[in-house]
Amino acid sequence: MKIRAVHVKQALDELPVLKGRTPQTTASEADPSFATLATFGKNGGVFVGSFEGRSAWERHSLGDELVQVVAGSTRLTILADGQQQIFEMKAGMVTVVPQGCWHRFDAPEGVSVLTVTPQPTDHSADDPVLSGNVATDFPQTTK
pLDDT tens digits, residue range 42-89? Predict the structure, then answer.
């Protein structure tokens, strides 16, 4: 087992900022602006990235996601308990997105984030409420 320590700011400094991110931005367009710092658990990772713009909606069926804003700011919208919960997050702030909750980032001025994210991740360019895709029930997995 290889254990290592990583300097988050240095890792971010080595990545280009994804400018003009939209819900339609493809993985091949976004991937160069994000890095995996470590694996986490059986199905997740510790990720960093920087972008300007709005992400697609996403959710994680196998666990909660930790989100820390390292630099800049973002509006993080989480659909939970049938309501939109909006968090104005800036550098130094952290939150946990509950398992299965759709969420998105809106960072017109730019943001750098560190996340601890379970995989897989579902993505949707469409608003889950308008598309009727807000269910958070997932099949139970056996160990």
Answer: 999 999 999 999 999 999 999 999 999 999 999 999 999 889 999 999
Max Cα–Cα distance, the chain, nearest Å: 45
DSSP-derived letter for residue 53 is: E
Give 83 or 132, the one with higher predicted confidence: 83
Domains annotated for the chain, with CATH where assigned, are 8-102+113-120 (2.60.120)
137 φ/ψ angles, rounded to the nearest 5 degrees: -85, 130
Which residue from 44, 51, 102, 55 is spatially nearest to 72, judged by alpha carbons? Answer: 51
Residues 6+ apart with CB under 8 A from 65: 96, 97, 103, 115, 116, 117, 118
Tokens encoding 28: 């091949």
Does the pLDDT of residue 135 top 80, yes or no? no
SS3 42: coil
Asked whether residue 128 carries a pLDDT value surpassing 90, the answer given is: no
Write down the H helix ranges in 39-131.
128-131
| Phi and psi torsions of 62, nearest 5° | -110, 10
